[in-house]
Specification:
Shape: elongated
Order of helices and strands: HHHEEEHEE
Radius of gyration: 23 Å
Strand content: 15-25%
Number of helices: 4
Distance between the termini: 87 Å
Number of strands: 5
Structural class: alpha+beta
Largest sheet: 5 strands, antiparallel
Strand order of the largest sheet: 3-2-1-4-5
Length: 190
Amino acid sequence: MESDKRKKGNRTFYIAVGIIILVLLTLYTLFLMWLGGGYLEEGIAGYVSHTVKMTGLAVALGALLVYSYRRIESRKEALFWILFLCIYLLLCIYLFRNIILDIPYISRPECTRLEVISWDVDTEMEQYMPYKIEGLDEDGKKQRFTVNKSTYKKYRREYSINTADVMYLPHTRIVMELELGEPETEGEKS
């Protein structure tokens, strides 16, 4: 009898610790987003920030899954839990697929040259405003990338700059390096 109470007490303790860790991780992620305010979008910091955001979301949903497992009382609830588990696993695959596929590209990102570039700010969200660079790539397709706030502030008023070489991760589309410059003239090409 007493060992059953102890087991239930241990389960409650582990659930409470898990929820506290989840809340702290979520608060940390929100703090990074707020603190970053558009500064954690490029380079390895952008990749890590993106990974932390996706991990926080997966952990939060996983904690709900674990918590709901403890509350199963009927066969119908167990079937719903299994359905929720399948949805959760598919969501995790979706969240982490691009992050994992970009690992080989961290040391050698893809590169594209944008011409006729313009700068934009997404003002739809109040607390977080992504800063964007967009332009036409070599194939004439419109490309759009998120950049750091400092990059945006540094170059947005430079109207003479109309080309940009963007080195980025192809799946998450995180800019690893951005080189801005004027296009070559016909006389400079050899």
